[in-house]
Request: fold
Amino acid sequence: MDTWMHEQRSTIILVCVGLYMLMCIGVGFWALRQTKTSKDFFMAGHRLGIFVTGVAVFSSTMSGFGFVGGPGLVYRMGVSSLWMVICTPISFCLSHYLLAKRLRLFAAVRGTISLPDAVASRYDNRASGFLSALAILLGVMGYLGTQILAMAHVLRSLLLDFEGLRFMSLEWCVAVSCAVLVFYCTTGGIIASVYTDLVQGFVMMIAAILVFFAAINAIDGGFYGMANTIVKHDPEAIGPWGTLGIFGCLSWFFVFTLGASGQPHVVTKMMMYKNLRDAKHLLPISVFGYAICALLWISIGLVMRALVIQGVHSPLANADEAAPQFLQHYAHPLLAGIVFAGLMAAIMSTADSFLNIGAAAIVHDIPRALRGRSLSNELAWARTATVVIAVAASFFALKAGKLVALLGAFGWGTFAAALVPAVAIGFNWKRATALAANVAIATSLIVNFSLELFGVRIPFGIDKGAAALLISLTLFFTLSLAAPPKPIARDIETAMDV
Reply:
């Protein structure tokens, strides 16, 4: 039986992925019937339970960034990217402490259906809502591009084993991935995303543990054998800072620890749960789920680097192939099929989150900021905007020519630098002013995109998003302290006092 399964490995994997995708399409159709208003499309009607919300938070953080990009970074840089993994549980604690209750209260007192809605309410300033919506829209291009590119890499890796499908280039796979995403996202909105997150979150936690042990058994000596092989080839790669160096790793630690509080696809889910008293239960679910899934990030990257060094596996043409190659060649076919299926679902549900907040920015937040009201027939326009954003992000992903994780790090840094001061700090600090929030957001966008567009490299491997976040924080605090405090609306002040 095992011999037959290994001979039919590629077919088994593709069937597992196909069945899981059919399930996701079924969820999309079910969610279509549940999505009757723009509030349902963007905020799931503020009626999610504890487990659905908690799992959705960590699933949105991991997604294609962690399952494809993470192992790719470990393969390329050694243990440098573990500083992203180490700080993420800390960032969950920080963002839950700062925002879990606050955002839900804002949604209750002002009926907000997006993060820019909440920002505009907090500062009583349309420009604040507009700039935060613009930051979200621009950041979505990088992070959504990450999901589409990750999905395309996985799809291409699967199709290469079938003679008649090898003509499918990465560009074709991006087009197919974009088409599937558009169908899934336009039907179900955020409801489809969070319920798919629930299923794939549990699947990936179990699969991550099994993959971890498969990675240990793939090489003689387990982790000791991996470390011994890598240290002989490149001692720096297995050191505490990897090949990136101390300043680069610490800049990642800085931007990923603080940055989670500015990730709109994560923090907006804190506006969706049903009861305020549930907030305290969200954190342990999110931290535990992420910690388990991170085993896949660490183990696959290290074992693939060791196998290539030993000559057991041929060098990878692209570091992002680390996870697909390991699953196809060294994991049991059924396990590989389950992980691939869960991975595709994770990518789809996270991409849905990005498309959702991007569509909200276009049809709800920016029109409200410019003319005082959102578009009429908001639900139909939201679905149209979803298609436009998906196509634009696909082109951006192909033109960027970056690894999945580096593209994701750019999106993360864009969100963090723009939104951490105005949201994570401003929603808890009454002295914060609208002017400080607006200047911080605008400056962070200018710095981030200027560094990226002109290819500026910061010395010592310091992350560009970390530099932009440091600048925006400095401006935010300086301008807020320089101006006299302004009165805050009574309901907003009450929500901030809770």
Observations:
- The mean pLDDT is 81.
- The chain has one domain: 15-402.
- The chain is about 80% helix and 0% strand.
